[in-house]
Amino acid sequence: MPRSKRRSTTEMSSVDEERYASKRIRNYTSSRRYGNRVDEALQFNQKRCLTWFREYTAPDDPDTLGPEGMEKFCEDIGVEPENIVMLVLAYRMQARQMGFFTQEEWLRGLSDLQCDSVSKIQARLDHLRCLLNDQNHFKAIYRYAYDFARDKDQRSMDMDTAKAMLALLLGKHWSLYTNFSHFLEQSKYKVINKDQWCNILEFSRTINIDLTNYDVDGAWPVMLDEFVDWLKANRAKTSEDGS
Question: Domains in the chain and their CATH numbers?
Answer without folding.
Answer: 46-133 (1.10.238.10), 135-242 (1.10.238.200)
